[in-house]
Design goal:
single chain, two-stranded antiparallel ribbon, 2 strands, coiled coil, PTN23 phosphatase
C-alpha cells in the first residue's frame, strides 16, 4: 500500500526499492508468474492513455514499480538540483532489458529508450554545467556538450517513431520541438568551445568558422524556442550575446590582422561526444535498499544468491566458448563462400543417368500422337507439290510470252517493220502483267517456303527423336567422360567436403549439448547444505563437468585449419574437372532446350504449312487459268503474224527464174532470217 501512494521524495524512492526487492524474494519462492498456480491479477493505470491494464503476473507488478521508481527519480532530478537523472536512467534501462515490452504501451521499447536518453541527456547537461563552472579545457567541454546532442538525437529518433507519436498525441509535438531546440542549442555550445580551442591554438581561420557555426545553430534553437518560458528565452539571449560577440570579434580580427583562410566546416574534424554519465545499475536484491527478507524462513536467501553467482560463472563459460566458435565459423563461412563449392551439386553426375522431367513430358505427349512426324512430312510434301505446280505453270507462261516476243522480233527483222493492221490479237499485255504480279508473289512466298522447309528440317530430326524409344533420347543427351584420375579427384573433393559438413554438424551438436547442460544445471539443493566458505570450491568442482565437452570443442576447432588446407589442395586439382563438367552441363542444358523448342515448334510448323498450302492452292488455280489465257493469246498472236506475212508477200512482184543459189548464199540467208527467210527464199 505504501508503494502505491509514495511521497515524492527520496523516502518514496526507498519505499519503491524495498517493495521491488520483496517482490523479487517472493517470486523466487511462490509460483506467481504468468500461468503459474499462485498467479493473481495485478492492475495498474497506463500513464498516457489512463486505461487500466491487468495481468496475472507478479513480474508486471515489478515492472510497474520499476517504472514509477524511474519516474520518481526523474521528478526529484528536476526539483532538486538535477542530481538524480542517472538513477532514473538506471531504472528505465533495467526495465527495458529485463521485462517484456508487451505489458502496456508506456513500457514499449521506444518509450523506454526515449526516457533513458532524456535522463542521460539531462545528466550530461549537469556535468556540462559543472565543467563550464570549473573552467575545464575547451576541447573537453565541447566533447561533453556534443554528447548531450547525441543523447537528445537518440531521444528525438524515439519520438519520431510512429508508435510513440500515436501514443503521446499532442505531447509528442511539444517534446519533439523542445528536444530539437536543445539539440541545436548544445551543438552551438559545442562549436563555441571548439572555437575557443582554435583561439587557444592560434588557428584564427578555424575560430571564425566554429563561431559562425555556433551562431547559425543558436539561431535555429531560437526559432524552435517560441512558447518556451521566460527563463529559457533569457538563457538564449545571454548565449546570443556571448556567441555573437565572439563571432564579431573573431571575424574582425581575422579580416584586419591575421588574414587566415576560413575553412569549410565539413573539412574540419567532427566533435565526438564524451559520454561521462551512465545509467546506474539496479540490483533488486541489494540488502542495503531492500531491508530484511520477509520470506527468509521459506528458503535460505544465501542459496539464491549463490545460485545467481553460479549462473554467472556458467554464463561466462558459455560466452568464452561461443566467442571461439563464432570466430571459427566466420572464417569457415568466408572460406566456403570464396570456394563456391556446393556439396550437393559438386559432381552433378547423377543427372546424366536420367531424362529430365521436362523432356519426359514431351516424349509422353508425342507417344500418344504417333503420326506427328508423318503428318508434318506429308503436309510439307503437299506444300512442295503445290509449290512445284505453281512454279511450273508460271514458268510455262513466261516461256510462252518469251517465245511470242522472239517471234515478233524475227518478223520485224524480216519485214523491217510491222505495218499496222486492224484486228491484232488482244490479251498478251494483260497476261504479261498478271504473270509479273504472280511471279512477284511467288518469289516472296518462295523465301517464306524455304524458311519453313529449313525450320522443318531443323526440327524434324528432333521430333523423330522425341517420338522414338527413350533409350535413343537418353543416348542423344551429352554425358561427361571422366578418366579414372578425374574420378579419383572428384571423390577426394567430395570426401573432404563431407568432412567439412561433419565438422560443422559436430560443432553445432556440441554447442547445443553445452547449452542444454548449462540450462539444466541447477545446484540450489547442494548450495543449501554448503557452507558459505566452501562455495568457491563447490563452484570449481561443479564446473569440471563441462571439461570433457570443452575438450571435444577445442579439438573440433583445432581440426578446421587442417581440413581447410586439404580442401584447398583438392580444389586446385578439381579445377580442370570442374571446367569439363561445366561444359558438359552447358551442352546438356542446350540440347534439352533445343529438343523442347522443337516440340513446341510443331504446332506452329503445321499451322504455317497449312497457310502455305492454302496460299499456293489459290495461286495454282489463278496460274492455271492464266496459262490457258496465255496459250490462247499466243496462238492468236501467231495467226496474226502469219496473216501479216502473207499480205506483205502478195504485194511484192514474182521473182525471175534464176539458177539455184550456191549453198553458201542459202546458208547465209538461213543464218540471217531463220525459217521465215528460208521460206521466202524458196518462194
Amino acid at each position: 500500500q505504501s508503494a502505491v501512494s509514495v511521497p515524492r521524495d527520496f523516502e518514496g524512492c526507498s519505499t519503491l526499492r524495498k517493495y521491488l526487492g520483496q517482490l523479487h524474494f517472493l517470486q523466487s519462492r511462490i509460483p506467481m508468474g504468468s500461468g503459474q498456480d499462485a498467479a493473481v491479477p495485478v492492475t495498474w493505470t497506463e500513464i498516457f492513455s489512463g486505461k487500466a491494464v491487468t495481468h496475472e503476473d507478479i513480474k508486471y507488478e515489478q515492472a510497474c514499480v520499476l517504472y514509477n521508481l524511474g519516474a520518481l527519480h526523474s521528478m526529484l532530478g528536476a526539483m532538486d538540483k538535477r542530481v538524480s537523472e542517472e538513477c532514473a536512467a538506471g531504472a528505465f534501462t533495467y526495465l527495458r532489458d529485463h521485462f517484456p515490452h508487451s505489458y502496456s504501451v508506456d513500457m514499449s521499447h521506444q518509450i523506454l529508450s526515449l526516457n533513458i536518453n532524456l535522463m542521460l541527456g539531462q545528466a550530461q547537461e549537469c556535468l556540462l554545467e559543472k565543467s563550464m563552472l570549473d573552467n575545464r579545457k575547451s576541447f573537453l567541454v565541447a566533447r561533453i556538450s556534443a554528447q548531450v546532442v547525441d543523447y537528445y538525437k537518440e531521444a528525438c529518433r524515439a519520438l519520431e517513431n510512429s508508435e510513440t507519436a500515436s501514443l503521446l498525441g499532442k505531447i509528442q509535438k511539444d517534446w519533439k520541438k523542445l528536444v530539437q531546440m536543445k539539440i541545436y542549442y548544445f551543438a552551438a555550445v559545442a562549436h563555441l568551445h571548439m572555437g575557443k580551442q582554435a583561439e587557444e591554438q592560434q588557428k584564427f581561420g578555424e575560430r571564425v568558422i566554429y563561431f559562425q557555426s555556433a551562431l547559425d545553430k543558436l539561431n535555429e534553437a531560437i526559432k524552435l524556442a517560441k512558447g518556451q518560458p521566460d527563463s529559457v528565452q533569457e538563457a538564449l539571449r545571454f548565449t546570443m550575446d556571448v556567441i555573437g560577440g565572439k563571432y564579431n570579434s573573431a571575424k574582425k580580427d581575422n579580416d584586419f590582422i591575421y588574414h587566415e583562410a576560413v575553412p569549410a566546416l565539413d573539412t574540419l574534424q567532427s566533435v565526438k561526444g564524451a559520454p561521462l554519465v551512465k545509467a546506474l545499475p539496479v540490483n533488486p536484491t541489494d540488502p542495503a535498499v531492500t531491508g530484511p527478507d520477509i520470506f527468509a524462513k521459506l528458503v535460505p536467501m544465501a542459496a539464491h544468491e549463490a545460485s545467481s553467482l553460479y549462473s554467472e560463472e556458467k554464463a561466462k563459460l558459455l560466452r568464452d566458448v561461443m566467442a571461439k566458435i563464432e570466430a571459427k565459423n566466420e572464417v569457415l563461412d568466408q572460406f566456403m563462400d570464396s570456394m563456391q563449392l556446393d556439396p550437393e551439386t559438386v559432381d552433378n553426375l547423377d543427372m546424366y543417368n536420367h531424362i529430365p522431367p521436362v523432356l519426359m513430358e514431351k516424349c509422353a505427349a508425342l507417344s500418344v500422337r504417333p503420326d506427328t512426324v508423318r503428318n508434318l512430312v506429308q503436309s510439307m510434301q503437299v506444300l512442295s507439290g503445290v509449290f512445284t505446280d505453281v512454279e511450273a505453270s508460271l514458268k510455262e507462261i513466261r516461256d510462252l510470252l518469251e517465245e511470242d516476243e522472239a517471234q515478233e522480233r524475227k518478223l520485224q527483222e524480216l519485214l523491217g517493220r510491222v505495218p499496222p493492221a486492224p484486228g491484232s490479237p488482244p490479251g498478251l499485255a494483260e497476261v504479261s502483267k498478271e504473270c509479273s504480279k504472280y511471279l512477284e508473289l511467288h518469289e516472296k512466298a518462295s523465301f517464306t517456303n524455304t524458311e519453313l522447309h529449313r525450320a522443318m528440317n531443323l526440327h524434324l530430326g528432333n521430333l523423330r527423336l522425341l517420338g522414338g524409344p527413350l533409350e535413343q533420347v537418353r543416348a542423344a543427351l551429352p554425358t561427361p567422360s571422366l578418366s579414372e584420375e578425374d574420378k579419383q579427384v572428384l571423390q577426394n573433393l567430395k570426401r573432404i567436403l563431407a568432412k567439412v559438413q561433419e565438422m560443422r554438424d559436430q560443432r553445432l551438436s556440441l554447442e547445443q549439448q553445452l547449452r542444454e547442460m548449462i540450462q539444466k544445471d541447477d545446484i540450489t539443493t547442494s548450495l543449501v547444505t554448503t557452507d558459505r566458505s566452501e562455495m568457491k570450491k563447490l563452484f570449481e568442482e561443479q564446473l569440471k563437468k563441462y571439461d570433457q565437452l570443452k575438450v571435444y570443442l577445442e579439438q573440433n576447432l583445432a581440426a578446421q585449419e587442417n581440413v581447410l588446407k586439404a580442401l584447398t589442395d583438392a580444389n586446385v586439382k578439381y579445377a580442370a574437372v570442374r571446367k569439363a563438367l561445366a561444359e558438359v552441363e552447358h551442352k546438356w542444358n542446350t540440347t534439352v532446350q533445343t529438343l523442347v523448342a522443337s516440340y513446341e515448334a510443331y504446332e506452329d510448323l503445321m499451322k504455317k504449312s497449312q497457310e502455305g498450302k492454302d496460299f499456293y492452292t489459290d495461286l495454282e488455280g489463278k496460274a492455271a487459268k492464266l496459262l490457258e489465257r496465255a496459250r490462247a493469246a499466243c496462238q492468236a498472236s501467231e495467226a496474226h503474224r502469219q496473216q501479216l506475212l502473207e499480205r506483205e508477200l502478195k504485194k511484192q512482184p514474182p521473182p525471175r527464174p534464176t539458177a539455184p543459189k550456191p549453198p553458201l548464199q542459202k546458208k547465209a540467208l538461213d543464218e540471217a532470217g531463220g525459217p521465215e527467210a528460208a521460206e521466202l527464199g524458196s518462194l
